[in-house]
Amino acid sequence: MNTTAVRTKLDVDIIRKEFPILHQRVNGRDLVYLDNAATSQKPLSVINALVDYYKGYNANIHRGIHTLAERATKAYELTRTTAKDFISASSEQEIIFTRGVTESINLVATSYGRAFIKERDEIIISGLEHHSNIVPWQFVCEEKKASLKVIPVTDQGELDIDEYRKLLSGKTKIVSVNHASNSLGTINPIKEIIQLAHEVGAVVFVDGAQAGPHLEIDVQDLDCDFYAVSSHKMYGPTGTGFLFGKKELLEKMPPYHGGGEMIKEVTFEKTTYNELPYKFEAGTPNIADVVAYKNAMDFINGLGRENIAAHEHGLLQYATERVSSLKGLQVIGKGADKVSVLSFTIDGIHPFDIGQMLDARGIAVRTGHHCTQPLMDRFGIEGTVRASFAVYNTKTEIDQLVEGLERIINFIK
Fold first, then answer.
1. CA 262 – CA 295 distance, rounded (Å)
2. Edge to edge, what strands does the sheet with 122-126 contain?
3. Cβ-Cβ contacts under 8 Å for 248 (sequence gap 6 or more)
4. Cut 0.90: pTM above it
5. What is the dihedral of CA 154, 187, 185, 207, to 10 degrees?
6. For the chain, which residues make up each domain, given as ranges?
7. Rounded to an integer, what distance in angstroms lies between the CA atom of residue 104 and that of residue 93?
8. Which of 38, 205, 326, 341 is deepest in the core (most CB within 10 A)?
9. What pLDDT tens digit does each residue of the chain (413 aa) get?
10. Superfamily of structural domain 12-42+304-412
């Protein structure tokens, strides 16, 4: 790992003032929140946007002609424009609001997969995937009698691209992989993966849940067919996110849900569907959280994604170096290119016990299989302790984590 010091333009003390939840004591100690890969905390701009909506212009959108409805619709659609720009999509019609990455994957698997996958076709995923990028494709394969192929993972926690090439064939119809691993932090060579898939005529879905808060995303440069992110990983509210899809693919896909908003005209004999993106947005949506999601993307853009990435990379380097001297600690996932996720085990101590003892010291980490049981099986472990860092974390907090781990190791051993 490159140990060159990373300089950023960020003032973390000022940034932390924007996150009220960080300024509390847990079990008698100052909170150290290192569970950002599960969900990030929310700045005041996001919290205030939620309050402002409910206090000032709570109304249903798109169909109302009164003032509150028009204000709510304008704010909702402004988030769509912000989302389009955030990932460099070409049109707002390519941005579908969903409940997050899980629903986005299910939407594509159900709509595109069931419409275009046939018997003996093949779908490729990877050994780094979250359960939400495994199970929906299993549903499709079981229903269509297609096959699910898996890109293997190396001992370093990276995808074996040579083996991926061997899996590709004229039978491959969909490749669905994450941009960055939630368990190990590995950043996949997603552009190469997409190019190779397109060479055999397959479409590519990219799970961007862990990339959204950390990486620059340009879907036109990547040339991916689908890309999804979740708000709550990106300093935004829970229960919302969006799916990008190439317009020509979305237009061919049948609706995912039926009901209001996704229709143009309904008779008992026939229904005609609404234009994009509304064809995939049936019913009253999660208006308040979508409105506030814009503020989360504005927060990221305001700090600068390069600055955020540099700060988080510095934290990851520092944490990796600090824990490397701890007795019996093994880092799981040593890829050359990672987002700010550090997963590890300690010989003879169960991850759950480590998590509970750290919590007693006010330190929040994630323990377990992280919804990646096949990946844990690949490494022959039940789970890991995962510390994941965000823009508001500090080296002092990492020192507190290491001190806590040292005390646990000395106490148990």
1. 26
2. 95-98, 241-245, 226-230, 203-207, 172-178, 122-126, 147-151
3. none
4. yes
5. -110
6. 12-42+304-412, 47-301
7. 15
8. 205
9. 333 344 557 999 999 999 999 999 999 999 999 999 999 999 999 999 999 999 999 999 998 889 999 999 999 999 999 999 999 999 999 999 999 999 999 999 999 999 999 999 999 999 999 999 999 999 999 999 999 999 999 999 999 999 999 999 999 999 999 999 999 999 999 999 999 999 999 999 999 999 999 999 999 999 999 999 999 999 999 999 999 999 999 999 988 877 666 556 656 766 666 788 888 988 889 999 999 999 999 999 999 999 999 999 999 999 999 999 999 999 999 999 999 999 999 999 999 999 999 999 999 999 999 999 999 999 999 999 999 999 999 999 999 999 999 999 998 86
10. Aspartate Aminotransferase, domain 1 (3.90.1150.10)
Q: How far apart are the first and last CA of the chain?
A: 29
47-301 placed in CATH 3.30.420.10? no
DSSP letters spanning 226-282 = EEEEEGGGTTS-SS-EEEEE-HHHHHHSPPSS-SSSSEEEE-SS-EEEPPTTGGG--
Please give the positions annotated as active site.
Answer: 371
116 is written with which tokens?
């275009």
Same fold, 12-42+304-412 and 47-301: no
Alpha helix (H) ranges present in 304-365?
305-323, 351-359
State the DSSP H helix or E strand holding residue 362, giving kind and residue range, or none if neither: none
- Helices 44-56 and 67-86: angle between axes, nearest 10 degrees: 150
Residues 6 or more apart from 353 whose CB is under 8 A from it? 408, 412
For residues 320 and 261, give the distance between their C-alpha atoms in angstroms, rounded to a whole number.
Answer: 49
Give the residue among 89, 100, 39, 23 at the shortest CA–CA distance from 234. Answer: 39
